[in-house]
Amino acid sequence: MVIYGVKDYQEMSRKAAGIISAQVILKPNSVLGLATGSTPVGAYQLLVDAYKKGDLDFSKVTSVNLDEYKGLSGEHDQSYRYFMNANLFNHVNIRKECTFVPNGLEEDGAKECARYDQLIESLGGVDLQLLGIGGNGHIGFNEPAGIFTKGTHMVTLTQETREANARFFSSIDEVPTHAYTMGVGNIMSARKVLLLASGSNKAQAIYDTIFGPIDPKVPASILQLHGDVTIIADKAAMALVQDKL
Ligand code: GLP
Q: Which regions in the chain score pLDDT beneath 50?
């Protein structure tokens, strides 16, 4: 693991945008695995700025997102499809038909999960997978569990995750109870992984990810077995590991 401890959210975002930009410049037809949440928003903004300045070209890029709430359409303003359009896709020259997010409206979970796994395979896998992390160590929507789940699957969201994400909805009752997510196997198959963390509510998860046992109770801990992981975390998120590195 390469671990960068940086000053704050801005510096985390700058470093992350630099790594994603380098990926796209070195391999213009990259398959980017993308993430939602408040953590990557700053990096996406900087990628948009770079595109507007003429420094970045997304015309050959394909993207696959980690996850989507079950039951929300892409037009719902809290769906992850909507988030990606609003924060990145609508502002750069990526071809919309080359951007993929699980279909939250597909009722048949087995069908949607098999479709998404086949899609990732047909793209030749992910070159760079961007990740945020939940306060409980979840990645994508892989919640703490008894086993690591390999492929795309449907999850029941934990109360903790629904509460954490309730800030984006008008009430917790509106937060979906289920989601589709890539599995840890999909994430581990990416050629490179870039995990971002900001804020003191991520400090324990970052500690457990780096130093804890590899345990499905902290899904991100499996990244210790990946050969090319970069973690960029700000001071608050690094609080518990700073002295140990
Ligand atoms: C959600 C997403 C994750 C994300 C996490 C953290 O549950 N499914 O992909 O990493 O929240 O979100 P935030 O970046 O807002 O802290």
A: none
